[in-house]
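Everyone, carefully examine this protein record:
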Amino acid sequence: MAAYDNQHYVPVRYFALFKPQSRTICLVLRKNGKFIPNASISGQSSSHRFYGSDALEAAITGFESACGDLLEEFAAMDDLGSMNSKQFYSLLRWIGFQRARTEAARSMDRPMWETMYRVLGEHAIVEGRPALERPPDRDSQLAGMMDSLEHSRFLSRLTPYLLSNRTNRPLIFGDAPVVYFNSAFRHVVDRGVLGTQSPGLQIFAPIGNNKAIALFDPDYYRVRSSSDGEVRIRDLHDVAALNALQIHSAAHAVYFSDTEFAPYVRDLWEQQRGRLRTHSATILSYMESVGEDQEREVNVFFEPVVPYDLNLSFVSRQRR
């Protein structure tokens, strides 16, 4: 196999944060809850030529390397008191990029691109022009990945926290490990509430069995933490809630370090299985008048919030 044939959308080095110096990982499949005890990490969260060219994969790998160093720095921290501005803004870039690069993200955006090129094709036929050929999914996704790096700066308005898991249950991660959520506006169904500038945004990203990064909109949430941004989690319900988000956000599987936790993860999956949804953007279509006896189709696309009622003991809503 050529060096870049098997292309990962969750880096192997990220897996090492949860199971260092190992070639295997435990997983539970999202579609049916099947437990696989010793899955090869090299075959996880990857696909043949997922991004395409060797040159592109090499560039992504270079970015991954710098991000791997960064995440190891955060995983070694006891709190965020020592975090500097370079680390913070690099973290935001990783958050945006990692979220945009996964198969779940590609699946989410696919209906948008299909609808967009259908409408453009219809307009081309009416105007006697050749229809635009829809580019491959990976090309469309690449545009989103590049946008994520540019838009990550808007996340700086959020307050970061280091979640420290002090329970006897691990934090798990899925093949879409960076999760955007919005407890304040999750019931809004006619527009997106997960954009980088959306009021009420929350972000969760595990960086080890006992560590996670979280960001909250300070205008909407009050978080109980130390003065240095550490949140010590001692409530198993909090760990279960964070893990449930990983199950909902994953495309294919959630991962964990040890077989002893298989019954726990399987139980979490059983609790959520009836609520799991396919990853697909919401499309709202309507006809808009543009003149006498003329209408045009308008399509609004957005990513829905995962169907989960998130409650964390250390977070309360700000009154507005």
Notes: The radius of gyration is 21 Å. The chain has seven helices and 15 strands. The chain has one domain: 6-107+145-317.
